[in-house]
Design brief:
Blueprint: H1 3-13, E1 20-29, E2 41-42, E3 44-57, E4 62-67, E5 72-77, H2 87-101, E6 109-115, H3 125-141, H4 148-163, H5 170-177, E7 182-187, E8 193-197, E9 203-209, H6 221-238, H7 252-257, H8 264-288, H9 292-309, H10 315-326, E10 331-334, E11 342-348, H11 349-367, E12 372-375, E13 383-384
Helix pairs in contact: 2-3, 2-4, 3-4, 3-5, 4-5, 6-8, 8-9, 10-11
The chain binds alpha-D-galactopyranose (GLA).
Domain Galactokinase N-terminal: 9-57
GO biological process, one term: galactose metabolic process
Enzyme class: transferase
Length: 386
C-alpha cells in the first residue's frame, strides 16, 4: 500500500492536516478451514496486502469517514445508537462500539482508508479493516492498553453484531498477530498458538483468484455453523455424561453414534470438521520434516471435503483444483470461507511457470475471464506505519 496515496486523499478530503497511518494485512490459511468456530486448529499467516488508514482525532463527537476505494463519505456520531447503513462504514462504527464496551473513551475523528486486498477473494479484507481500525483506536484513544486479543475479539464481535456474519476468530487473529515469514498454528479452543517459520524448499505458495465474488453476509456461511451446532446438540443429548462445547470435543466414534440422529447434511459437515482437525496437525508435523508431499496431499483432501462434504465450493474453484492436479501441483484447495474467491496452491518450482500459464489460459477459455494470480508473501501483522 502506498502511504503517499492515502495521505494525499486524507489531506484532500479533510481539513488539510495529517494524522497517523496504520496498516493491517489480509491473511492466507495453509490448512484448517471452518474449524475456528468449531474450537479446532487453524494455520494462517498475514500477507503483504491489506488496509491502510490515516486517522486524526478531530475534537468533536463526530466520526468523519472517507473510503478512498469507494470514493464515498459517511459521517456519524460516536454515540449514534444505530450507526450508518453503508456497510464499509459499519466496520468503523462496530469497532468504535466495541472499544467503548472495553471502557475506552472514544472521541470523534477523521479517517480515510484504502486497501489492496481484493474484496470477496477469501483473503479477509473485512478482518483487515477491523484490525486496522482497532489498531488506530488503541493508539489514539487507549494509550495502546487494549490487548491484541481484545482487538481480535472486537473485530469478531463487529462481524457478529454489525455485519451479520457469525465468523470464528481466525481472520482477525491472523491480521493482528501475523509476523513476517511465519505461519501460526492456533488452537481456537484454548487460544494457544505457535509461530512456524515458513520457508518451503523448492516450493512456492500462490493464490489463484477465480474472481467469483464470495459474500459471507446472508450466505450459507451461517448455515454451516448452524449444522455444526445441531450436531453438538445431538451429541450432548446422546452422551449426557460428557460436556460438548463444540465439535472439537467429539471423537469420530461419537459422531458415528449420532449419525441417525442428525440430518445427512449435518452429519457430512461434522465429518469434514473432525477430519480437518487431524489434517492441520498432520500438516504441522509434515512441515517440521520438510515433507511437502504430505502437506500437499492433505490440502487436496481438504478441498475434497470442502467441496463434497461441507459444500462451500463452486464450479470455478473445483476447476482450478482440477487444473492444479493435472499440472502436478503438490497441493491445492479452496481457501477461506468458500463460495468463491481463491485457491491456495503449494507448487514445486519446476512446474510453477507451466501451471500458472496453463491455468490462466484454460480457465479463461472456459469462463471468459482470466483468474488473478498472487504469489504469497508472509508478512507482519497490524502496525502503526507513521
Ligand atoms: C471466514 C471466517 C473465518 C473462518 C473461515 C473458514 O474467513 O471469517 O472465521 O471460519 O471463513 O475457515
Amino acid at each position: 500500500m502506498d502511504i503517499e496515496f492515502v495521505r494525499s486523499r486524507f489531506i484532500k478530503h479533510f481539513d488539510g492536516q495529517t494524522g497517523n497511518i496504520y496498516f493491517s494485512p489480509g491473511r492466507i490459511n495453509l490448512i484448517g478451514e471452518h474449524t475456528d468456530y468449531n474450537g479446532g486448529f487453524v494455520f494462517p499467516g498475514a500477507i503483504d496486502k491489506g488496509i491502510m488508514a490515516e486517522v486524526r482525532p478531530n475534537g468533536t463527537d463526530t466520526i468523519m469517514c472517507y473510503s478512498i476505494d469507494m470514493k464515498d463519505r459517511v459521517e456519524f456520531k460516536v454515540n449514534d445508537p444505530d450507526g450508518p447503513r453503508t456497510t464499509w462504514a459499519r466496520f468503523i462504527y462496530g469497532m468504535v462500539q466495541e472499544f467503548k464496551q472495553l471502557g475506552v473513551q472514544v472521541g470523534g475523528f477523521n479517517i480515510a482508508f484504502a486497501g489492496d486486498v481484493p474484496l470477496g477473494a477469501g483473503m479477509s479484507s473485512s478482518a483487515a479493516m477491523e484490525s486496522c481500525f482497532g489498531c488506530a483506536l488503541n493508539d489514539l484513544f487507549a494509550n495502546n492498553e487494549i490487548s491484541k486479543w481484545d482487538i481480535v475479539l472486537a473485530g469478531q464481535a463487529t462481524e457478529h453484531k454489525y455485519i451479520g456474519v457469525n465468523c470464528g476468530i481466525m481472520d482477525q487473529f491472523a491480521s493482528v498477530f501475523g509476523q513476517e515469514g511465519k505461519l501460526m498454528r492456533l488452537d481456537c479452543r484454548s487460544r494457544e498458538f505457535e509461530y512456524f517459520p515458513f520457508e518451503p524448499k523448492d516450493h512456492t505458495l500462490v493464490l489463484i483468484n477465480s474472481k467469483v465474488k464470495h459474500e459471507l453476509v446472508g450466505s450459507p456461511y451461517n448455515d454451516r455453523r448452524r449444522s455444526c451446532e445441531n450436531v453438538v446438540s445431538a451429541l450432548a443429548e446422546h452422551f449426557p455424561g460428557k460436556h460438548f462445547e463444540t465439535l472439537r470435543d467429539a471423537e469420530p466414534d461419537e459422531l458415528l453414534a449420532v449419525e441417525n440422529e442428525v440430518s445427512t447434511e449435518d452429519y457430512r459437515r461434522a465429518h469434514f470438521v473432525l477430519g480437518e482437525k487431524e489434517r492441520v496437525l498432520a500438516v504441522c508435523d509434515a512441515l517440521n520434516h520438510g515433507d511437502y508431499e504430505t502437506v500437499g496431499r492433505m490440502m487436496y483432501e481438504t478441498h475434497e471435503g470442502l467441496s463434497k462434504e461441507y459444500e462451500v465450493s463452486c464450479e470455478e474453484l473445483d476447476y482450478l483444483n482440477q487444473l492444479a492436479r493435472e499440472a502436478g501441483v503438490t497441493g491445492s484447495r479452496i481457501m477461506g470461507g468458500g463460495f468463491g474467491g481463491c485457491t491456495i496452491n503449494l507448487v514445486s518450482n519446476d512446474v510453477y511457470d507451466d501451471f500458472i500459464s496453463t491455468a490462466i489460459a484454460k480457465f479463461k477459455s472456459r469462463y471468459g475471464h482470466a483468474p488473478e494470480v498472487y504469489p504469497v508473501v508472509i508478512s507482519a501483522g497490524s502496525h502503526k506505519v507513521c
